[in-house]
Fold this sequence. Notes:
Blueprint: H1 16-67, E1 71-76, E2 79-84, H2 94-117, H3 130-139, E3 142-146, E4 152-157, E5 164-165, E6 171-176, E7 185-191, E8 194-200, E9 207-214
Antiparallel strand pairs: 1-2, 1-6, 2-3, 4-5, 4-7, 7-8, 8-9
Amino acid sequence: xxxxxxxxxxxxxxxxxxxxxxxxxxxxxxxxxxxxxxxxxxxxxxxxxxxxxxxxxxxxxxxxxxxxxxxxxxxxxxxxxxxxxxxxxxxxxxxxxxxxxxxxxxxxxxxxxxxxxxxxxxxxxxxxxxxxxxxxxxxxxxxxxxxxxxxxxxxxxxxxxxxxxxxxxxxxxxxxxxxxxxxxxxxxxxxxxxxxxxxxxxxxxxxxxxxxxxx
Length: 215
């Protein structure tokens, strides 16, 4: 009993009807949200090859401009690889050659560091040259991305009359000049439940237009 002499009212409980209505509304909202979340997830996964190529193109363009040396993205049916443009007439095996060279460089550096840790004197190094260090860093640059299983990739450069579907040993080079310019490229990625076609701008390497659908 309170100080006023009144007995406090008991808290009101939910009726069975109110509980059923609340649960039904929650079930409906959950049923609407799950397909939407699943659709967003499927679109994100389907768009990943396009997004990765876009990000890599911007990174490669920035490196070409800062180092004033051409870079490239080599695209085939398995994926794409980015590196310095060193061998104009090299084939698709160039990526494996670069990978082996980088492994050899890493092994030599590990041996030098291990010798220094044991107190073994190595040849004295010259004063670091920022420009030379930037060149060495560029030679070590190598990025690659593998396409998801079942993805069909086609390319069309500005002078191509038809789309080139990459299969087998077919590949194309997308070269970025020190000026920041690149060849206009259209990239198409198709799967059983998705389709993306994007056009890259030759001055900025950004996506200029896009056609897409995801089931």
